[in-house]
Automatic annotation (TrEMBL):
It is a multi-pass membrane protein. Residues 203-409 form the ABC transmembrane type-1 domain. It is found in: Cell membrane. GO terms for biological process: transmembrane transport. InterPro entries: MetI-like, MetI-like_sf. This is ABC-type spermidine/putrescine transport system, permease component I. Keywords: Cell membrane, Membrane, Transmembrane, Transmembrane helix, Transport. The keyword Transmembrane helix applies. One of its GO terms (cellular component) is plasma membrane. Its main location: membrane. PROSITE patterns: ABC_TM1. Belongs to the binding-protein-dependent transport system permease family. CysTW subfamily. The chain crosses the membrane at residues 35-58, 207-229, 241-261, 289-310, 342-366, 386-409.
Length: 421
């Protein structure tokens, strides 16, 4: 009996003598490592092409290296400044030393450009003062007095407040500017004066235009998707080629084609005038109407495809059963068929809206100044003024808007219904 008890209490072992539980754990770990090895290339690709650029974008929107790197001694001393009156003599000495080094290293322009964003005319002040470096002082003379002698603006506390605000490696300046906010002397944000506001209107215009494009895409795309879903397979596949045809053409080419069609002497106006429908050309191009027409045409497949995919999965017998039980065809469609297509419509609408808020080429070529969206100004600050901080701030706000839309969609419709198939 005792020997049988010992055998029953002994752990099970494999053929090589290793306990079976240990061997099973090793096999499970090996499978996990193999699975991680298979997804590692994809994870690395996403990290390098998606997560890392987004992280750099967010960092750049608050990055503020110019003042700290060019005026390191001055920045350290200004941390303890009470911001009453002018800084101490030691701060002026540090500024003289920093500007002397900046002149030798040729970093004065980037400092002047950054501070000029805070106060107009700061660029000329920095450059004029840097040309006087190193300072030549008479015995017993004050460095502060010499700076004020070079330019009286060094005696203005507001210019020193601007330097002090930027004496740190990060700043909310670009994000505030993108939201038409200004930082007060106490460090709190406040709305800029009416005549200085621009970006809130631009963001509002972007969302408004995107909303209308999405509405028109739904209004046109839903009937087309329903028609394709109810046609015989051969005819449906043939017409689907026409829906997919815009994907095979460059966006730039499609916009150029719409310019040819919509301009005052274009084919549409000539045809209408030839038929006697109108007496003078309609303003269809280089305004909001032209932008709407081109964007709806370009983005229409993105609402048709997910809606069609959901409609094809709905059995036709549902509608026939409702009608056979005495329901009106429209009532049967509205109560039985339409609710099952909401997931596809919502997914397509979300996709269209997100793509709209980031559109650049179509409004730039077919619209006027009042039709330019946020992406136009991202390109402007990137390519024209070389203001990476402002471009990154605008891009970050677009990213926040996109993530907010996705969160709202997931809340209302449900993430499990996002599948397009």
């Amino acid at each position: 009996m005792m020997s049988e008890s010992l055998v029953m209490d002994a752990p099970l072992t494999a053929a090589d003598g290793v306990p079976l539980a240990v061997k099973l754990k090793r096999q499970a770990r090996l499978k996990q490592l193999k699975a991680l090895g298979l997804i590692a290339p994809l994870a690395l690709f996403l990290l390098l092409t998606f997560l890392l650029p987004i992280g750099l974008l967010l960092k750049r929107s608050v990055d503020n290296p110019e003042v700290v790197s060019v005026l390191p001694q001055t920045s350290r001393l200004l941390v303890d400044w009470d911001q009453r009156g002018l800084p101490s003599e030691a701060v002026f000495n540090a500024l003289a030393a920093d500007l002397t080094r900046a002149r030798e290293e040729k970093t004065v322009p980037e400092l002047a450009k950054r501070l000029n964003m805070e106060i107009s005319g700061f660029r000329s002040l920095i450059q004029r003062t840097a040309r006087k470096m190193p300072l030549e002082l008479a015995p017993g003379a004050s460095v502060r007095d010499r700076f004020i002698e070079i330019d009286e603006r060094w005696g203005d506390p507001d210019h020193w407040h601007a330097i002090a605000r930027n004496a740190k490696s990060w700043t909310p300046y670009y994000v505030y500017s993108a939201l038409d906010l200004r930082e007060t002397k106490s460090g709190t944000p406040e709305l800029a004066p009416e005549e200085e506001r621009a970006f809130l209107k631009i963001f509002g215009r972007t969302l408004w235009m995107s909303l209308w494009v999405t509405i028109w895409c739904i209004a046109l795309g839903y009937p087309i998707a329903y028609w394709l879903a109810t046609l015989p397979k051969r005819q449906s596949n043939l017409l689907m080629i026409l829906v997919l045809l815009p994907f095979w053409t460059s966006v730039l080419v499609r916009v150029a084609a719409w310019i040819v069609l919509l301009q005052s002497e274009g084919l549409i106006n000539r045809a209408l005038m030839g038929l006697g429908v109108i007496d003078s050309p309609l303003p269809l191009a280089f305004n909001r109407m032209g932008v709407y027409i081109a964007m709806v045409h370009i983005l229409l497949p993105f609402i048709i495809l997910p809606t069609y995919s959901v409609m094809k999965s709905i059995p036709a017998t549902y509608m026939r059963a409702a009608i056979s039980l005495g329901d009106h065809p429209f009532a049967a469609f509205w109560k039985i068929y339409f609710p099952q297509t909401v997931a596809g419509v919502a997914a397509g609408a979300l996709l269209v809206f997100i793509m709209c808020i980031g559109y650049y080429i179509t409004p730039a070529l077919l619209g006027g100044p009042e039709e330019q969206m946020v992406s136009y100004f991202v390109a402007f600050y990137t390519n024209v003024t070389i203001n990476w901080g402002m471009a990154a701030a605008l891009g970050s706000l677009l990213l926040v808007a996109t993530m907010t839309l996705y969160a709202v969609y997931s809340k209302l419709v449900g993430a499990n219904r996002l599948s397009l198939g």
